[in-house]
Amino acid sequence: MPVPIIDLFAGPGGLGEGFASLKGHRQQPFFEIGLSIEKTAVAHRTLTLRAVFRRLRGTKDIRHYYSYVQGKIDEAEFRAIPAVESAFEHASKEARCLELGKSDEAAIDAEIRAALKGQETWVLIGGPPCQAYSLAGRSRRANDKNFHKDEKHFLYKEYLRIIQVHKPAIFVMENVKGLLSSKHSGNPMFERIVADLSSATEGLEYEIRSFTKPGNSDSLEPADYLIHSERYGIPQNRHRVILLGVRKGLGIPQHRLLTPVARPATVRQAIDDLPKIRSRLSKDDSLDAWRKAILAAPAYVKGWKTENESTMIDSMREFAASATSVTTGSSFIAKEYKRTRKQTELQKWLHDRSLGGVCQHEARSHMATDLARYLFSATFAHSLGYSPRLNVFPSKLLPDHINVHVLGENQPIPFNDRFRVQCRNEPATTVVAHIAKDGHYYIHYDPSQCRSLTVREAARLQTFPDNYFFAGNRTEQYTQVGNAVPPLLARKLAEIVRSILNRMTREKRKQEGDHLCKEAVKSQRHRLPARRGQVPLLAEVD
Questions:
Q1: Contacts of 66 (CB under 8 A, 6+ apart)
Q2: Model pLDDT for residues 482-523, shown as the tens digit of each residue
Q3: pLDDT of residue 431
Q4: pLDDT of residue 184
Q5: Among positive and negative, which fits the CA dihedral 506, 510, 511, 516?
Q6: Is the Cα torsion angle 105, 106, 112, 118 positive or negative in sign?
Q7: What is the rounded distance in angstroms from the CA atom of residue 418 to the CA atom of residue 437?
Q8: Of 197, 133, 207, nearest in space to 159 by CA
Q9: Cα 9 to Cα 35: distance, rounded to the nearest angstrom
Q10: Do the Cβ atoms of 308 and 340 come closer than 8 Å?
């Protein structure tokens, strides 16, 4: 029987996806999501659809899911299919649109008990909202006198309450790096959270362990709980605090740790095989107008007054001339996946040959001046191997922003990396929800495409499989992707949790076997008299 998972603050389901993907005996699921709770309606729709996918996967009816994702049938037709209707009925019980801290606690507790079905060994996962801890959030609200009253500081207590009431064997809690330095009323939040989780309630204690360092909160430093995702095969420099809580008294041994990869996965490995597309123009988009804007971009570099000026202009002209993509992408693009022996772990995880293509790979619109900045930035990164900052931009390409123009000559420019190319041969920078606002920080490395990343490209950098479909409009899709835990990293965490539970099971069986052996020896002792000079068998066992 699969180990139940309860997923709190689930978002679009990245953490749950990693756990649910793991197999156990005879290729059966080792974990099963019993309940996932998310307050945002559009993310809840994504969770529900993914629950339907898991229900249909491995059956002939999975073809209907692919037809829906490919746009061959609409949602009404999809839901009307009897097998799909049944899957949605199950998914509606698994994925719940509730807000922890505001929804009825007794009702939530009842749903958790129903999902656990009496199983005592289960795992709690989730990441309480992090805006109050993030460095960016604290920076934006530096002068906000009510910041300390933000309820998000203490949403972890909703997670703690579930632990206190339902007593999971193991929990996994994820949060931002900023948690390590966050304070509330002058007191460090990280130490407070670890203390609360360690002594959840009277008679219920947990070891707070790290996935990357041996020990627990008595011996570990706060930074030991920080996971650098790029070290473990994720094509992204995403640094997150992840706690592993292990209930005391269960005899759960020290666990194995995450294994670093020999070489980091790169942006190119993640997205280079996706169809090439062009961006749109914000106003009066057409292929001719787009090409005209691209061909005009090199002129902005004139007057740059650097030794690279003429070389840069020539390179930009070459890339502008090679910008021949005619499509801006689509909600689904047919594509053949070629099976090769050299597929990386990442590519095996992402690709789905049955999907027959790529979904949600559609370019957003940009102003002509931003296209010029993108072409310059991508050409610069292609030539020099790193993304340019605003302080090296040609003056004609500087954005019309007050922070750029009012400063003195020797003062640093705030947000100097406002335009950021995701370099092909490195992991990406952290994909965050801000990608929904504009694409400036997520410029594609291919100058000839001259655009920011699509939802599918961002999803790949987050390691969502290609068959993962995000509900909502494009802005909502970007937000969900940016708020998620990378599913491939979650799977690697799940492998460690699985190994802990397997060892716990083996130890339990061994103890039960020893007990049965002792009972058998006692029975033999009563039936057979000991020979003269022979020590009774019970003494040998004891």
A1: 354, 355, 356, 467
A2: 999 999 999 999 999 999 999 988 877 776 666 666 666 666
A3: 96
A4: 74
A5: positive
A6: positive
A7: 13
A8: 197
A9: 11
A10: no
Among 217, 279, 294, which residue's Cα sits nearest to residue 248? 217
Q: Parallel, antiparallel, or unpaired: how do β-strands 239-247 and 204-209 relate?
A: antiparallel
Residue for token pair 């790979």:
361
Structure tokens at 515: 């007990």
- DSSP of 292-357: HHHHHGGGGGTT--STTHHHHHHHHHHHHHT------EEEEEE-PPPP-TT--HHHHHH--GGG-E
- Measured at the CA of 291, the angle between CA 285 and CA 295, to 5 degrees, comes to 135
pLDDT digits 0-9 by tens, 280-310: 999 889 999 999 999 999 999 999 989 999 9
Task: Give the range among 84-93, 275-284, 414-423, 447-456 with minimum mean pLDDT.
Answer: 414-423
> Are the C-beta atoms of 416 and 391 separated by less than 8 Å?
yes
Q: What is the mean pLDDT of residues 474-485?
A: 97
Confirm whether 450 is a catalytic residue. Answer: no
Helix, strand, coil shares of the chain as percentages rounded to 5? 45, 15, 40
3-state secondary structure of 360: strand
Q: Provide the CA 66 distance to its chain's centre, in angstroms.
A: 23
Torsion angle in degrees (nearest 10) through CA of 487, 493, 495, 497: -130
Residues 182, 190 contacting (CB under 8 angstroms)? yes
- Which tokens sit at 380? 């610069």
- Average the pLDDT over 405-416 and give the result: 59
Structure tokens at 295: 């061909």
Locate 203 and state its tokens: 């008679």
**Measured between alpha carbons, how far is 125 from 171 in angstroms, rounded to an integer?**
6
Residue 358 — φ and ψ, nearest 5°? -130, 130
- Nearest alpha-carbon partner for 45 in 119, 95, 107, 109: 95
Catalytic residue among 97, 130, 450, 517: 130
pLDDT bracket for residue 6 (50, 70, 90): very high
Mean local confidence (pLDDT), 254-283: 95
Extract the tokens encoding 278: 């062009």
Tokens of 177: 């790096």
pTM for the full predicted model: 0.90
Q: Given this model, what pLDDT does residue 410 score?
A: 59
Residues 6+ apart with CB under 8 A from 202: none
Q: What is the model's pLDDT at position 148? A: 46
